[in-house]
Amino acid sequence: MHQKSLKQISPRLSGILVVIAATICWATSGIFINLIIRESGLSAVGLAFWRDLTTAILLFIGILVIKPQLLIVKKKDLPWLIGMGAISIGVFHIFWNKAVLMLGASLATVVQCNAPIFVTIMAWFLFGEKITTRKIIAVILAAAGTILVSGISSVGEWKIEPVGLLIALGSAITYGSLSLFGKKLSGQYNAWTIMFYIFAFGTLTLFTVQLGNPDPWPDSQNFLPLFIGFVIISTIVGFGLYTSALKFLPASVASITATSEIFFAAILAYIFLHERMDLWQILGSVMIITGVILVSMANENNTAEKSLDG
Questions:
Q1: DSSP H or E segment with residue 288
Q2: Where are the domains of the chain?
Q3: DSSP secondary-structure letter at 91?
Q4: Per-residue pLDDT tens for 293-304?
Q5: Residue 129 CA: distances (Å) to CA of 39, 180, 190, 309
Q6: Alpha-carbon distance 171 to 108, whole Å?
Q7: What is the pLDDT of residues 194-221, one digit of tens each?
């Protein structure tokens, strides 16, 4: 019985660790974006376009050289890949950039914490994943922790615009769709196959939004090394690890665990950008980690853990 239990838990814990590794990679993106835009003068959407295009090209070349068969996908799965690329990559970048411009990064981040709630509900509806009491507590902890880590100490500091809030909510939903689409496809394709197609379709989406006239490639000498680090660490390794983890985790658990990115981003910003963490931000980080621990300890096959749907 004990060995059987270990076999059930081991893939889950492995998936949790892989998601955490992915979020550490994603957490570097804030530093790279800050330094790249400061160095190059690219717009946020322009940087997203060059990021997605470069990622797609590198993945295509890598797959072509190592294992060309990975480029083959079934026609029936193309709508899922197109949807994941256009919505989870392309439209998400558009919504996120607009939310930050209209509301500021802090409030946009707070609204972004709705993503695990959306994923948990939709995963129950689409995949039959149980909504357990542990998941509910973990979502609440992650959401509250994100609000504290965002650095806002009072509601009066928020620049609330109704349209901006709707766009920010759209950002949370499109970000959450990454876990849902990924869960649908991860059992059928290699992570690198999925990544190539979604970044290719994400690039087309961003190209269309910019009316075929994206920001020109920067000529700054310091841009290239920063951009390479951004593409390799924050994008290819980060998304590759997360997509791989979806083979072992329910979409809702992966999404809740991914909120740990906020914690790692705050730590890295403190180290590299000298952004100070106050007591409330530290408390928020602890709440996020607690939520991740809750979902990593949960055994969904354990009858002791009751679900809301009975």
A1: helix 279-297
A2: 23-297
A3: I
A4: 777 665 544 434
A5: 45, 11, 23, 10
A6: 9
A7: 999 999 999 999 999 888 888 999 988 8
